[in-house]
UniProtKB/TrEMBL annotation:
<feature type="modified residue" description="4-aspartylphosphate">
    <location>
        <position position="67"/>
    </location>
</feature>
<dbReference type="InterPro" id="IPR052893">
    <property type="entry name" value="TCS_response_regulator"/>
</dbReference>
<keyword id="KW-0597">Phosphoprotein</keyword>
<dbReference type="GO" id="GO:0000160">
    <property type="term" value="P:phosphorelay signal transduction system"/>
</dbReference>
<protein>
    <submittedName>
        <fullName>Response regulator</fullName>
    </submittedName>
</protein>
<feature type="domain" description="Response regulatory">
    <location>
        <begin position="6"/>
        <end position="134"/>
    </location>
</feature>
<dbReference type="InterPro" id="IPR011006">
    <property type="entry name" value="CheY-like_superfamily"/>
</dbReference>
<dbReference type="Pfam" id="PF00072">
    <property type="entry name" value="Response_reg"/>
</dbReference>
<dbReference type="InterPro" id="IPR001789">
    <property type="entry name" value="Sig_transdc_resp-reg_receiver"/>
</dbReference>
Amino acid sequence: MASERPILLVEDNPDDEALTLRAFHKNRIANEVVVARDGVEALDYLFGTGAYAGRDLSVAPAVILLDLKLPRVDGLEVLRRVRADARTNLLPVVILTTSREQQDIYEAYQLGANSYIRKPVDFEKFIYAVGQLGLYWLVLNEPVDPPGL
């Protein structure tokens, strides 16, 4: 599975980051993975600010895998800002989190999340879930580029 667009993984837990990257590898997902470890870093990447100033914004992520419980700016606020900007409002955003809170699920969908997936605790189930994510978002889904990109 591969496309030329990167995956933006927004994850502050180093163990979950390592497991996700391992699951990508096991599922032969070859896309570049850009890791943002907090909400500010994710927004900087998406909008070409801060450490990512000057980044080619025409290379948008194929999918954003977004944790909710993040330092500095939480995942719901990242999602809110992604959906509020014409340059990013059509990007697929998959919430990938441990939260089972109904309020989190409701608010994520209310803000425009494309999917909400609770991270499986079992590694084999996690590998399977990431494989399904890759198959759908990187192979089957037809992305749209916002006008002007």
